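Dear Dr. V.,

Thank you for agreeing to look over these. As mentioned in my earlier message, I'm a first-year student in the group and I'm still getting used to reading structure tokens, so any feedback on how I've presented them would be very welcome. I ran two proteins. I've put each sequence directly above its structure. The first is here:
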Amino acid sequence: MSVPGSGVALVVDAASAAGRTAEAEALDDAARRADGSTGGSAGGGTGRAGADAPSAPRTVWDRTGVRLAAGAVLPLLILLAWQLTTAAELVPAYRLPGPWAVVQAGAELLERGELGLHIAISVQRVLIGFAAGSVVGLAVAAVVGLSRAGDALLNPTLAALRAVPSLAWVPLLILWLQIGEESKITLIAIGAFFPVFTTVAAALRHIDPHLVEAGRCFGLRGWSLFRTIQLPAVVPSVVSGLRLALAQAWLFLVAAELIASSMGLGFILNDSQQTGRVDRILLAIVLLALLGSLTNALLGIAEKKLLRRWT
């Protein structure tokens, strides 16, 4: 059966709108970004312009430079308060070293060639675990979200496993996989799996059934139905789940490296706690925050491209 082009276009537009609604339920912030990107692409045709809601007027806070400057205000105030507190000796130096002492601790590790290696190993673990957990999460979410049988069979067990704290997995993984990269990456993958699974499965279950039925009326089945109707509807939720999974991956990295590791930023935290090096503890915390922000920003760039392509 041939598919009329105009009819499929209308169904795709409606699926994109449903995707923005599903994402709003999962993560309001990502939904606003999705609406902004789709609103920008709607100007190319009258059909899309009619489907998309009118975008809110831009304010001074929407400018990139203003947002970057505003985002730097609080860290700078914290840094200033930190410096003033340590300079006035309100807190003993062995409990709270000054910012310059933390910089010197980083320079010391850098000169010895250790800091770059610790960072590289932690980033590698996060990326591998994040990729593995996300892929498995997307696959399982498709089964649960698109199949009532899969939902009934898998969802109760996965909901129970999701409540297990990250540290509870560590002894079992060490016994099964020993103290090596496999156990650490598996723990990170577990952390990345659940945000993707939960967000995408919920979005698939909440796709408007009228959209799916409309696609079937135009002859769409199987992969063509998924690619044309269901995928555009859940892409914003997929991106939201990936961003949450990336944050979880960094959290589970620290859990993995604190318990059984001889390298990485988590190892610096654990080793510095045992030797009383508060400056190195603060250094590791700052580096984790910066690396998490950097990877999140890179994923945000990919998000914009995906939303332009699929919504």
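The second protein is here, in the same arrangement:
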Amino acid sequence: MREEEDVLMPTTIDSAIIEERSRSAAHRGFDDIAFAREDERILSARGENPFCGDEIEVRLVCSADVAGEQVVERARFDGYACTLCLAAADALMEQVEGMTASQAASITFDDLCRWLDGLSVGRTRKGCVELPLRALARALADGVH
């Protein structure tokens, strides 16, 4: 008798994982990012999805490492958005903490879907996942030279 292989099903946009991350987003809000030390910089950018009305703001606190490259010390987001966008923003902010600016700037849509337990999303909801990525890229581009 042949044993059946475990097949991992991708996470879908309506899964409990997405709902829980959205509802209990640990990286939502700017209370602990209002001020930066003298050796830190606050980078921020907003993004919106005109098709659905989602709006996200990303804020990063960065400091230079010994080589002079900016490192993301703290990352937060806030805004009005759908469950999928909020979950994606929370996962993204969690992952970028500790990354250099160049590492954070190279994050892809596929990376973010993988961090959301293999999220599978169709083209109509792809913008919901991409919005936090676009805001992150804009904050990094505007603030790190």
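From my reading of the second output: Confidence is low (pLDDT under 50) at residues 1-7. The helical segments are 16-23, 83-96, 101-105, 109-115, 126-143. Does that match how you would interpret it?

Kind regards,
E.
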